[in-house]
Amino acid sequence: MTDQPKPIRLNKFLAERLGVSRREADELIVAGKIFIDDKTAVLGARLDKYSKVCYNKKIIPFDTDFLYIAFNKPIGYVCSRRAQGGTPTLYELLPKEYQKLKTVGRLDKDSSGLILLTNDGDFAYQMTHPKFHKEKVYEVGLDRPLEPLHQQMISDYGIMLDDGPSKFTVLRQDSNKYKVVLSEGRNRQIRRTFAALGYRVVSLHRTQFGKYQLSGLVPGKCVIIKP
């Protein structure tokens, strides 16, 4: 007697195969863009390896090899697939076989350091959603030393920004250099927080994301990692 194929929830399947979050997968289902065996899929649907799942008139293969890489992004590159004006994209630095992967979060053009890329949307979701509290560590240079009161305000109370309070740990390293540890991932959060107190971030380099670290990885290079 052979084992029956184990069913999998449709939104989990889509998240893993399309590189989206489960919420985004549910939105595709509700919008009527997903078909199972030529029928419009519904929320909560399950499938197995014999099911034919289609999106944009293309069959999504059931078996997919997931790939995870760590990349040391240099300054001057954006994390989007398309160049912005005259600013190149980090995908120009990646080997061809990795250019279909999606970034897990982002670093702005003027920031450098650790970026993760994958084709596993579920992994990306678990690394970036605030409820999982994945710590990120940065080396931050300011245009002048941080006042002790301001350091305490950021670390103990948080600074109010347009999109809510921003709170993270700030540890002085040397002169105007600081170690910043936070578990959020809001757009340019570190830069905006220091700017609200009158400081300018002159350098921002991410060294750690969750359990993953740069560990001497050369700028512009990448390495395969395990989830």
UniProtKB/TrEMBL annotation:
UniProt keyword annotation of Isomerase present: yes
Pfam families assigned: PseudoU_synth_2 (PF00849), S4 (PF01479)
Top-level class of the enzyme under EC nomenclature: isomerase
GO molecular function annotation: 16S rRNA pseudouridine(516) synthase activity
EC number, UniProt record: 5.4.99.-
Domain RNA-binding S4: 8-65
Keywords tagged on the record: Isomerase, RNA-binding
Origin superkingdom: Bacteria
Gene3D superfamilies on file: Alpha-L RNA-binding motif, Pseudouridine synthase I, catalytic domain, N-terminal subdomain, RNA-binding S4 domain
Family that this chain belongs to: Belongs to the pseudouridine synthase RsuA family.
PANTHER family noted in UniProt: PSEUDOURIDINE SYNTHASE FAMILY PROTEIN-RELATED, RNA-BINDING S4 DOMAIN-CONTAINING PROTEIN
Protein name: Pseudouridine synthase
Species whose genome carries this gene: Candidatus Nanosyncoccus alces
